[in-house]
Amino acid sequence: MALAHLPFVLLLVSSVAAFAAGDHGLTHIHLYVHETYTGANATAAAVLQSPLGANSSFGSMGVVDDEIRVGPDRSSQLVGRYQGVFFGTSVQLGAGYLSSITLVFTAGEYNGSTLSVQGPLLGFTGTIERAVVGGTGKFRLARGYMLFKMISKPTPETDVNEINLFVLMHPAGKY
Ligand SMILES: *[C@@H]1O[C@H](CO)[C@@H](O)[C@H](O)[C@H]1NC(C)=O
Ligand SMILES: *[C@@H]1O[C@H](CO)[C@@H](O)[C@H](O)[C@H]1NC(C)=O
Ligand SMILES: *[C@@H]1O[C@H](CO)[C@@H](O)[C@H](O)[C@H]1NC(C)=O
Fold first, then answer.
1. Ligand nearest to the CA of 55
2. Which stretch is the leader sequence (predicted)?
3. How is the chain split into domains, by residue range?
């Protein structure tokens, strides 16, 4: 009876050991999201207003297709797009959104891969933390978290946001 469990226990022990060996630890990705609110090159748009009126965000919807660059400078290398939707999900006053974002890499080390970030946006100040729930390509089966912080508004139409992602790569993701 007890022996029947042995292979399972061995499997667990060996996968924990492989993990602890550090081949697939946390990967830190540090990049910048550049957003433009209005004009010919806008990367963000409000799509739907709340049915509860202009003072509510509940049921509102927005969409972004921001640039991901290696630095805070708009002339720094473009490595992907920050594409997502925001839904107002709080009936109470103040911000309360569900965001679903795909980081689509088009250059650099992660070219061709994507990361899916999901979670709440309970305000627009300070550092916003959301979960990395998966990915494709080099990020298959990945998970982790993303810290997002607005760092500057170079013009009234634009802002620059620093993102730090800590991603647990999964050993089985290479298959
Ligand atoms: C939009 O982007 C193009 C290409 O980078 C640029 O030539 C143009 O000046 C920009 N337009 C505005 C309104 O920023
Ligand atoms: C929004 O709130 C402001 C301030 O409380 C109020 O004056 C205004 O009438 C409200 N607007 C709507 C559309 O409810
Ligand atoms: C990114 O990958 C695509 C598809 O493999 C390739 O066509 C493209 O040249 C790559 N871009 C860069 C900047 O490496």
1. 2
2. 1-18
3. 25-174
